[in-house]
Design a protein that fits this description.
There is one protein chain. The protein is built from 27 helices and 16 strands. The protein is α/β, with parallel strands linked by helices. Strand 2 and strand 3 form a beta hairpin. 41% of the residues are buried.
């Protein structure tokens, strides 16, 4: 694989100034250049604010990419939000855009991210059908429209409202393109509508939260609980379950969320809590918001400090452009406000996605957790594991209890899948695939179960876009050595060995890298190894392997498969014992002759074990690989397949007398 060359599942945005050609006819070139420069700068700023990158500017059009070189779990949603914001900005600042509107196309799919061009001017770009389709969608979009493709729509429909349009007959496309017009965002960034899936496997964690709430309302000692877990593991769902208990017992819940992109501001999540407590809505004018905050402050606080506290709260909630030099005063006002809320009514405060929070917010919550006193108030922080690594002081807070959410147990996974698939014809088959792939992650289970249930078995290859994006984002967040080891291991398979990784070129720090990957819950060490003297490991679940493997280019895959095959041939006492595995690796390494030979060896082994159908299938695979002009080898493969089929046919009828024949389902007559 060339330097930095990767396959990516990315979202491409094309934005074009509608009416530019007509404007050019009667505009001075210098004025035209200045206008285009302003437009492209505005659009680029929006793209980058939402986590994308500008790939290129071509005249009056901008091409942006979300998901390369770095993936986020919600790249399709980010791309559409950016496109809608570009439309809003063009309407709001019409003079800067020369009175032109913007036509946008957005599409998600498989691309290659690699340098292209002559050596002196090589630049990274993305290429693939997904890019061409985005351009076609842009061309078909209405003058002020954001037109998105099928995969983009599927991945973002929970967060964006869409209007279906007639399939688009695009130039160069054999089939019409399914498309939708994006209208508006339905939720805040990174906010997922709460799942309606059954709540399973979290009784212990829920009971601990309920007991913490009960103790706090009894002894009036505020506490901090931190829920830590991987994306999709069920952290937010758990907070809603405990919130239901809180409200049943006369308490209230207020929420704030740190945002990963877009309108990120200092103390943002705490500002959301202030707004919710004062019933301030996004549509309220500045004057109305200030009046609501003042009225609420006077109702909660003593008259002698209500004015100062509400002034500080307005700064924390970004309701004013005023500033204050004394941070301690801000924190003291936040403390007085929360204690007043707690005295008014027992309160649960939930701060979600702390891994994205600014340092100012985290400093505030840490200070509050140790200073709040004599009120029934519980703070719940929700974060991903990397948060505690980055914020080591958090774990040392005296009032903090950390709850780590682990994957669901096997029995819980099966129960959840079967309940999700109630009434689906092939529920057992889908449950088996989900159980194998999802690794006990409730969100992956829900997404994968729904996706598989909608498809016929032969169409069930691949992964849902949301699941793929979440895993890709997690892998992209790894340090470079760990990311490379994960990719190398993905070539080996769901199970791999330390020696193979060394053969693939991993550096001398491999043991430490594997330790780190194990701590991150991406791989696990196996207690026994099939290769003597070598450590055997396995991916925590097969979805991680699938996504990691998908980022390798075909050339990189071939190179690594060949290295794996050579290692197995040298390490195995009898390479033929691994014939099927070696056939797989040599096939993907681009050596069909070696792959065919190992397939025929595996067929012989299957035949000796009376697995005649498998033997015939392996012979058929070998025939697909043997060149047409290799007459002798093809003749041997056809003969072996014929023998396997014939032997299997006889075996189907060679059953003990009086028992059903597998072939006919009838009872064989007694002989003699």
């Amino acid at each position: 694989m060339g330097a930095g060359e990767e396959r990516r599942w990315a979202t491409v945005v094309f934005a074009d100034l509608s009416g530019f050609t007509a404007l050019s006819e009667h505009t001075d070139p210098e004025d035209l250049r200045a206008m285009v420069d302003r437009c492209m700068s505005e659009m680029a700023e929006i793209v980058e604010r939402f986590g994308g990158s500008v790939d290129k500017v071509i005249g009056d059009a901008l091409m942006a990419v979300f998901g390369a070189p770095v993936a986020h779990e919600d790249d399709p949603e980010r791309a559409v939000r950016a496109a809608l914001e570009i439309q809003r900005r063009a309407g709001e600042r019409a003079d800067d855009f020369g009175g032109l509107r913007v036509r946008v196309g957005v599409n998600t799919g498989d691309v290659i991210f690699a340098p292209v061009g002559p050596e002196s001017r090589r630049q990274f770009t993305v290429m693939g059908d997904a890019v061409n389709t985005a351009a076609r969608l842009q061309a078909a979009a209405p003058r002020e429209g954001v037109m998105v493709g099928d995969e983009t729509h599927s991945a973002s429909a929970r967060a964006i409202s869409y209007e279906p349009v007639e399939p688009i007959h695009a130039r160069g496309k054999q089939a019409p393109l399914r498309a939708w017009l994006a209208r508006a965002a339905k939720t805040a960034p990174a906010e997922r509508p709460l799942s309606a899936a059954p709540f399973l496997g979290r009784d212990a964690e829920l009971n601990l939260l309920v007991r913490t709430w009960t103790r706090t309302t009894d002894d009036l000692q505020p506490r901090l609980v931190t829920l830590v877990g991987l994306p999709g593991i069920g952290k937010t769902r758990l907070t809603h379950e405990v919130a239901a208990h809180v409200e049943k017992t006369g308490g209230r819940t207020l929420r704030g969320r740190a945002l990963p992109y877009g309108e990120r501001t200092a103390y943002g999540a705490f500002g959301q809590v202030i707004r919710a407590a004062c019933e301030i809505f996004a549509t309220d004018s500045a004057a109305v918001a200030a009046e609501k905050l003042g009225r609420r402050g006077r109702a909660l606080l003593p008259a002698d400090n209500a004015r100062e506290v509400t002034t500080h709260l307005s700064i924390l909630a970004r309701l004013t452009e005023d500033t204050v030099d004394d941070r301690h005063a801000l924190f003291a006002s936040a403390q007085r406000f929360l204690e007043a809320l707690g005295r008014e009514q027992p309160t649960l405060l939930v701060f979600e996605d702390l891994q994205w929070a600014d340092h100012a917010l985290l400093d505030l919550v840490e200070a509050l957790s140790v200073r709040l006193a004599e009120v029934p108030l519980v703070l719940v922080g929700v974060a991903r594991p990397e948060f505690l690594d980055a914020r080591s002081s958090w774990s040392r807070l005296p009032t903090n209890t950390t709850i780590r959410l682990e994957a669901l147990a096997d029995a819980q996974v099966r129960e959840l899948v079967l309940r999700l698939l109630s009434g689906v014809a092939n529920a057992d088959a889908v449950a088996a695939r989900v159980h194998e792939a999802a690794g006990g992650n409730p969100l992956f289970i829900e997404e994968l179960a729904g996706w598989l249930a909608e498809r016929e078995p032969q169409d069930a290859a691949g992964l849902p876009t949301n699941v793929k994006a979440m895993i890709a984002a997690r892998l992209d967040g790894l340090p470079a050595p760990e990311r490379q080891v994960i990719r190398d291991a993905a070539v080996v398979g769901d199970v791999f060995w330390q020696g193979i990784l060394e053969a693939l070129g991993s550096d001398g720090m491999l043991a430490a890298t594997l330790d780190s990957l194990e701590r991150r819950d991406l791989v696990r060490r196996c207690s026994v190894s099939r290769i003597r003297g070598d450590q055997e490991l396995a991916f925590k679940h097969s979805l991680i392997r699938e996504v990691a493997y998908s980022t390798l280019s075909k050339a990189a895959r071939a190179q690594r498969h060949a290295a794996v095959a050579r290692f197995l041939e040298e390490a195995a006492g009898d390479p033929n014992a691994y014939a099927a595995i070696l056939a797989h690796h040599w096939r993907h390494a681009g050596d069909p002759v070696k792959a065919a030979d190992y397939l025929l060896t595996a067929a012989d082994q299957a035949g000796r074990g009376w697995a005649h159908e498998e033997a015939a299938n392996l012979c058929s695979q070998a025939l697909e690989l043997i060149p047409e002009d290799d007459v002798a080898r093809r003749r041997r493969a056809r003969l072996r397949r014929a023998v396997a089929l014939q032997t299997g046919m006889h075996a189907a009828y060679d059953v003990p007398s009086g028992e059903p024949s597998p072939a006919s389902g009838e009872v064989s007559p007694r002989v003699g």
